Amino acid sequence: MSNGENASAQHSRRVVYGEALRRFMLRPEATSVVAVIVLFIVFSALAPTLFPTRLTYISIMAVAAELGIISIGVTLLMIGGHFDLSVGAVLGLTSYVAVVLMRDFGIHPVPASFIAISVGGLLGLLNGFLVVRFRIHSFVVTLGTMLIWRGVLIALTGGFPMTVAIPQGFKDAMSGPLLGGFRMSMLWFFAVGILATVLLVRTKFGNWVQAIGQNANAARNLGVPVERVTILLFVITSSLAALAGIIQVARFASVDALRGEGMELQAVAVTVIGGTLLSGGYGSVVGTMLGAITFGMIQVGLVLAGAPGHFFRTLTGVIVVGAVILNTTVARRMANSKPLAGFKRGSTDADAAIKAGAEVDIGTSKSSTSASEAPR
Amino acid sequence: MIDNASAYAAQAVETEVRKPGFARQTLGKALLFCASMVFAGMAWQGQAQAQDDISIYFVGCAAPTGFHGYLARGAAEAGENLGVKVTYIYPDQLTIPNQVQKIEEAIAAQANGIAVCAFAEDVAYAEIAARAKEAGIAFGSAAAPPSGAQVRDPEDFFLFRTGSDEAAAGRLTAQRLVSMGVKGRVVVANQQPGDASCQLRATSQIDALKAAGIEAEFLELTMDPGQQAETLSAYLRRNPDTAAATSTCDVIDGFLAAKADGGYDNLILTGYDIVAQSLAAIKDGRQAFTIDQQQFWRGYMPVLLLTHYLKYGLIEGNYFLTGPTIVDKDNVDRVSALVEKGYR
Question: Does residue A200 belong to any structural domain of this protein?
Fold first, then answer.
């Protein structure tokens, strides 16, 4: 009899599920999953005819997509131990670049967008260079560049909104409601989320990012090119902010001096709701995607539930603080928790028992053999 | 004199660049550029001295761009017309301490008159107004008087007040909606909930609508147009009886998107202040009207009033309201032309 069969035989399904739940709660995105479920239930109860509908999901995803794309970059950077407060200003400035290239230079939106995203990358490169070269905390550097880029944008636009004619094809490709009413920005959001997840959990670069976020000196001693990775993270973050800006330009055919203002803090809030630690080294892109959806649910759900108009920011803040408290306390408790029923941490017995339990639960005929096939 | 200096510098630079040798050319250009700057500075100083001795500081709310650019332009044009020196200064971040600091700088600069784009309660400016008075500096406000006030209070520490009555603007919007025969709910949304002007517009509009028997509700938004659009869409779904939506600040992209995306063709959109999107939307009928506060006057009139007070001792009897006025389909073309010229 294999160890897995022993485990599943010795422990009741309840214990096995308990251990599975414990393990799930150890994951960074656990809180955001809980937040999405709880908010969905709450808002569905408060607005039963309006909230659980396709139109609501479309609205939520429209909000989540644009903010989520920015937040994914911020998440990668935060896992790497840095902040970027300039993403909102980068969004605004690169949107301006795209609008000017299209309107004043007659450049087609596609190359104009590539140029604008490249400009975003260059702004990120500058952020990264300043952080690495002068060893200044990224919070301070990006606070400064945020003010600079915002000032430049105000000066360039003269404070006035600028409009541009966007070809329908480009508008549809970037933000059109082509996916059964859902906007194309959702597709971009998922694509960016998948790529970032693969980058973070399936590549050497992702390992380096997490290592740097946990202890940059230790990572450097182990041969991780800390400076190069840090700069690249800033480039990715600013490029994603520029991509979000392009999506907004395509949808609204305009840019204004305050475009993107405040989104840097919304992105941090979304990232924190998603379970990424402000201290770096720990986090999840999937969690951030769920965090962005949480944010969208709050924004749309409060209105549908008829919440007082003045309370949106207040309630959002309450939920952010609640999510952080939940994240930190649950993470601390779960980190100190012992595996149930005598499982050892990371033991293959536990893996096998959970897998066997799950397969029994879904009623597969292979349940009796799956444990023996479990990897040791 | 400026022309002479510039011509001299340009001629000198042109002569220099003909010389061979890259390094020498570059050095020469740099030196001549510096020289031209010195000449230009001397010319400017000379022109300034040629003006009247009156020096007026205009303490704005923000950088002279966009909306505030019109105020600054109005002040500058008044200065040119009246032959007085006008200096526009502003705080980096609009807070009471920052703006008071700027007023202190104007006092230290020994201005003859100061006009402040007041954005807070009078009590915030009482102390600095007293200091200006002690220093013999005329002190006025480029902001509207308390709503409803018409005759100037002789005890008012501001020599004058000139601006648009935002509470009246809210009431005007409500009156126009009522006259348009709006039946149903009106949502009044604010993208900048901390902004006193936007909030006052919203509050007075809602109160006036309710007084007219129309249900009106406040909605808080963010500055992001995507979030604006989705939040407003959600509101319209929850309240299908909504007949009109008002944007209390000038970023109206999200409103236009929500109307178009949701197919709310009959939804009446109204706004405040003038921006390109609003003018275009009024022209093609997507937006009914917007409220203009004619801020060019908010820059021009304070300089005029200060100058005439300093020269002739004239003080206004009535507070001067620059707005509100309505821009709709009837006058949008004329207003657009003035916007392009920088006057509206």
Answer: yes
Count chain A–chain B contacts defined by CB atoms under 8 A. Answer: 108
The two tokens of residue A30 are 């656990």
Is any Cβ of chain B less than 8 angstroms from the Cβ of A264? no
- Structural domain span for residue A314: 19-335
- With respect to residue A275, please indicate whether it lies within any of the assigned structural domains: yes
- Which of B68, B226, B251 comes nearest A256 by C-beta? B251
Let me know if A173 is exposed, middle or buried by CB neighbors in 10 A (0-12, 13-18, 19+).
Answer: middle
Chain A 73-132, CB below 8 Å of chain B: which residues? none
Sort out which chain B residues have CB atoms less than 8 A from A257's CB and list them.
65-66
Q: Which value does ipTM take for this structure?
A: 0.72
A312 lies in a domain? yes
Residues of A in contact with B251 (CB under 8 A): 161, 256, 258
Successive 10-residue mean pLDDT values, chain A, 376 residues: 51 76 80 89 94 93 95 97 96 96 95 98 98 95 95 83 90 89 94 97 96 95 96 98 96 88 92 89 94 92 83 77 78 72 59 57 40 30
Task: State the pLDDT at residue A361.
Answer: 46
Contact state of A160 with B65 under an 8 Å Cβ cutoff: yes
What's the domain count of chain A?
A: 1
Q: What token pair was written down for A169?
A: 């094809």
Evaluate whether A304 touches A126 at the Cβ level (below 8 Å). no
**Structure-token match 């094809």, residue found:** A169
For the domain that residue A220 is a member of, what is the CATH number? 1.10.3470
Tell me, what's the pLDDT at A242? 98
Q: Is B233–A59 a contact, with Cβ atoms under 8 angstroms apart?
A: yes
How is the beta sheet containing B289-292 ordered, strand by strand?
B216-220, B185-190, B242-247, B268-272, B289-292, B325-328
pLDDT of residue A350: 57
Is A145 among the domain residues?
yes
CA distance A193 to chain B (A): 20
